[in-house]
Design brief:
3-stranded antiparallel sheet, alpha+beta, 26% strand, 3 helices, 5-stranded mixed sheet
């Protein structure tokens, strides 16, 4: 995925949404996805239903990146705020998902440098 500094992810519905948008890119932790499925008893669904751009592994507490610069695959980001879950999560994942995602719905960030994020880098 192509990340464009200050603009967003090419092809994303929020690309060039508005100046200084806090959600130019969104992140979600794989471990939280698994926990929410287990906690709600929901059938396995694709993580794409969560409407986050990037699924990361090994970073369960994404909220700690709020107010921080961080780098993934040579692309720099700035964590702006928590992604609050909405009622739609109960429909997309299963009943109880919105509640289970409270305070762990992902991270919104600004893109600070242009670059490409690749799936499953080695």
């Amino acid at each position: 995925m192509h990340c464009i500094a200050g603009r967003g992810v090419e092809g994303d519905r929020f690309f060039d949404f508005k100046p200084d948008y806090k959600g130019q890119i969104t992140f979600f932790a794989w471990e939280v996805y698994e926990a929410v499925l287990a906690e709600t008893g929901a059938e396995a669904v694709t993580p794409a239903v969560l409407r986050r751009n990037v699924i990361v592994e090994g970073q369960q507490d994404l909220n700690r990146l709020i107010g921080q610069e961080f780098c993934i695959q040579d692309v720099r980001f700035f964590g702006t705020q928590h992604c609050a879950p909405c009622y739609w999560m109960d429909r997309a994942v299963g009943p109880g998902a919105e509640h289970a995602l409270q305070r762990r719905g992902g991270l919104r960030a600004r893109i600070l440098t242009d670059g490409v994020l690749r799936r499953n880098p080695q």
